[in-house]
């Protein structure tokens, strides 16, 4: 055999060449038994996005890559081959014309954000012959602080020597490393414009999951009309979804209230409440509550149902503003029932305690002045009588062996739920409400856990019980730590908050908070599939850290101090505070973008309050970029959206505007535009200008002057700026002071 034949492998005969369209049908198809990878089809052109990302472009007018991402597909007018053939130095574009076009585009973008009167003024300037650049310079600047350069600087990863980097590496559950924000992917119109309401042609439909596929009409039992012409920019009603629990179908709401509503309306309101709010404040365990609504146990009463609906109708008002009127009717009936209960000295019961809590938070969200204070006092007193909390440890615990197992379980649960709620409420009032926590141990979620909740074979109701139990357990453990903070910050010694926190106490408490976060179950970690309830758990966590270190910040007059538990040379209270503020920024942005509950769940508003305060505080610190303006405007937008259902949002918004005007970081036209939007979207509110007493908004000022930091005083200062408009043919503003930005 020749030597060459031993060195080379024998070649297979050449395959018969087939037409390209047959090859395309074979590769990657079902008949491709060898599983060869489909070849990328050749195209002589690619869109701008695919060129930049080096993606495979199919060359179609709207390529598949842009279509999948919802991007505008654009192509260069001149190909690379032609560009290479053009001699160097040749001018292809009239630079002056290109500059004018850019100025016109900048003006158009600016007109989208300014008030209507400014738009009309700009149009007048254009019609008399002014260039776009001249008109742009004449308009007040409404920069949201999200320029490409500023944002890129804001999202740079922390340096390796920083405390934030150490926290991200050692405690990734509490301080996850977020993916960089791409401005091109942010829907600024959605983020920075208050959401409107949209009804489709049939209203929200709830599918029961039963064999007959029955559906139910929209609230009030009738169909809605046609959609608004600008419906594309509005929030739609809840999409058809599986009914939370089929037991809702058997509820006859007329047995529990004199407010004339349909069963369909009650189902819609309860559906939204049970999905969005109840896991965050499960005063009555959901199965006990649903069975009680059917009359099968003792865990339901007329006062409880009326108080619950008074609260729940506010969230539902985002989809149907008239629900606020129904909510007021429930509120008034619940108040009358509670008045009669006190006059007759009715027996204390867990249902009554739950009802008073609903009445209290409803009065707060109504902005009903001092009305909530009476409910809060009644709640604390009845809770003490029932032995839920605030019981002196030296007192002998009453024997409850005669109570049923369900009653003991309900009593233990409401004790801890109220403990978490009132402890968090103390952070807003800057008052200690609970001295002694419940004497019973926190609820243990292990009694529900039989197997992995991700098991597809596990019934959904069992998954729900496990999830709610784990969420409640983590809330209890977190707020036990916060309770110890409250004891020091607002304890009986009446030491000013600014002086009550020492570095040693802050370090020890922060260590406990980090250990709590490290022990969170995986399903409670932040991620793209994190539930809105878990996101709020992280919000509460970072708010506690911000309050813990606020008195130790240099911007508040404290000396520079170092935390010895960390290796970073930059481990200071200011660094811890900044790390949690950065997390809060991303949480608020993510929550607003990805969770529709941001429009109708009021429990998350505290994140907006704390972030807005932090952003206003940044304006007086040198070295901070202008991105604070974007996050402050984002908080205002979210409050404007929440105002559709919750009256308190207006008082907080006006208070924050007052703070911004006093700091000189906002112009009068901007504040006037926000106030005008609030007035337009709040027409359905019976009384819209009240705020709850003692409600703290200016968090830094509250350390030294709590009274001046409260909403009622801040709103009054806002009114004193004399933003009142005079009505006439032309809109004017009386005595407008001007502030430098």
From TrEMBL:
PANTHER family: ZN(II)2CYS6 TRANSCRIPTION FACTOR (EUROFUNG), ZN(II)2CYS6 TRANSCRIPTION FACTOR (EUROFUNG)-RELATED. It comes from Colletotrichum incanum. It holds the Pfam family Zn_clus. This is C6 transcription factor. Residues 1-39 are annotated as: Disordered. SUPFAM superfamilies: Zn2/Cys6 DNA-binding domain (SSF57701). Residues 46-75 form the Zn(2)-C6 fungal-type domain. Signal peptide: none annotated. GO terms for molecular function: DNA-binding transcription factor activity, RNA polymerase II-specific; zinc ion binding. Keywords: Nucleus.
């Amino acid at each position: 055999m020749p030597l060459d034949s031993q060195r080379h492998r024998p070649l297979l005969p050449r395959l018969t060449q087939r037409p390209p369209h047959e090859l395309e049908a074979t590769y990657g198809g079902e008949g491709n038994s060898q599983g060869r990878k489909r070849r990328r089809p050749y195209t002589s052109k690619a869109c701008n996005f695919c060129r930049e990302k080096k993606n495979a472009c199919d060359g179609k007018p709207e390529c598949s890559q842009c279509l999948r991402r919802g991007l505008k597909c654009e192509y260069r007018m001149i190909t690379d081959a032609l560009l290479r053939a053009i001699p160097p130095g040749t001018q292809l574009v009239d630079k002056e014309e290109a500059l004018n076009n850019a100025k016109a585009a900048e003006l158009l973008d600016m007109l989208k954000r300014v008030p209507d009167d400014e738009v009309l003024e700009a149009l007048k300037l254009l019609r008399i012959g002014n260039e776009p650049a001249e008109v742009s310079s004449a308009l007040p600047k409404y920069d949201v602080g999200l320029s490409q350069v500023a944002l890129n600087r804001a999202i740079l990863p922390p340096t390796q020597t920083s405390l934030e980097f150490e926290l991200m590496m050692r405690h990734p559950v509490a301080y996850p490393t977020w993916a960089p924000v791409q401005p091109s992917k942010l829907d600024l119109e959605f983020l920075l414009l208050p959401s409107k309401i949209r009804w489709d042609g049939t209203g929200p439909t709830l599918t029961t999951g039963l064999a007959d596929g029955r559906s139910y009409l929209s609230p009030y039992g009738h169909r809605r009309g046609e959609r608004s012409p600008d419906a594309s920019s509005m929030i739609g009603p809840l999409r058809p979804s599986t009914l939370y629990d089929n037991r809702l179908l058997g509820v006859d709401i007329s047995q529990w209230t004199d407010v004339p509503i349909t069963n369909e309306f009650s189902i819609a309101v309860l559906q939204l409440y049970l999905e969005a709010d109840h896991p965050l404040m499960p005063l009555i365990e959901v199965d006990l509550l649903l069975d009680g609504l059917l009359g099968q146990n003792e865990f339901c009463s007329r006062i409880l149902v009326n108080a619950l609906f008074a609260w729940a109708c506010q969230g539902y008002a985002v989809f149907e503003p008239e629900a606020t009127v129904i909510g007021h009717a429930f509120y008034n009936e619940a108040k009358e029932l509670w008045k009669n209960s006190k006059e007759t000295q009715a027996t204390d019961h867990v249902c009554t305690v739950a009802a008073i809590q609903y009445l209290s938070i409803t009065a707060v969200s109504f902005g009903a002045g001092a009305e909530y204070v009476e409910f809060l006092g009644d709640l604390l007193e009845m809770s003490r009588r029932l032995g839920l909390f605030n019981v002196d440890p030296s007192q002998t615990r009453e024997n409850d062996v005669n109570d049923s197992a369900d009653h003991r379980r309900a009593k233990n649960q409401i004790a801890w739920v109220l403990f978490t709620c009132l402890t968090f409420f103390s952070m807003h009032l800057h008052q200690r409400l609970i001295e002694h926590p419940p004497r019973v141990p926190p609820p243990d979620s292990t009694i529900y856990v039989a197997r992995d909740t991700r098991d597809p074979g596990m019934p959904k109701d069992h998954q729900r019980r496990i999830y709610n139990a784990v969420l409640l357990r983590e809330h209890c453990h977190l707020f036990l730590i916060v309770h110890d903070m409250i004891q020091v910050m607002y304890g009986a010694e009446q030491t000013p908050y600014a002086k009550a926190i020492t570095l040693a106490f802050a370090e020890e408490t922060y260590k406990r908070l980090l250990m709590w976060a490290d022990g969170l179950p995986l399903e409670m970690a932040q991620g793209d599939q994190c539930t809105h309830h878990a996101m709020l758990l992280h919000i509460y966590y970072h708010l506690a850290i911000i309050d813990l270190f606020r008195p130790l910040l240099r911007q508040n007059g404290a000396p520079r101090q170092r935390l010895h538990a960390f290796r970073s040379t930059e481990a200071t209270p200011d660094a811890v505070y900044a790390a949690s503020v950065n997390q809060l920024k991303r949480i608020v942005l993510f929550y607003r973008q990805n969770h529709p509950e941001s429009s109708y769940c009021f429990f998350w508003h505290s994140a907006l309050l704390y972030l807005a305060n932090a952003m206003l505080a940044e304006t007086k610190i040198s070295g901070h970029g202008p991105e604070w303006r974007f996050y402050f405007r984002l908080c205002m937008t979210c409050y404007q959206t929440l105002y559709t259902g919750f009256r308190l949002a207006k008082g907080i918004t006006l208070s924050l505007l007052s703070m911004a005007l006093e700091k000189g970081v906002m112009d009068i036209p901007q504040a006037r535009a926000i106030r005008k939007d609030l007035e337009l979207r709040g027409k359905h509110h019976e009384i819209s200008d009240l705020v709850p007493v003692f409600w703290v908004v200016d968090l830094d000022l509250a350390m030294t002057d709590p009274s001046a930091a409260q909403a009622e005083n801040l709103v009054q200062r806002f009114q004193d700026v004399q933003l009142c408009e005079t009505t006439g043919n032309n809109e004017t503003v009386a005595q407008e002071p001007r502030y430098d930005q």
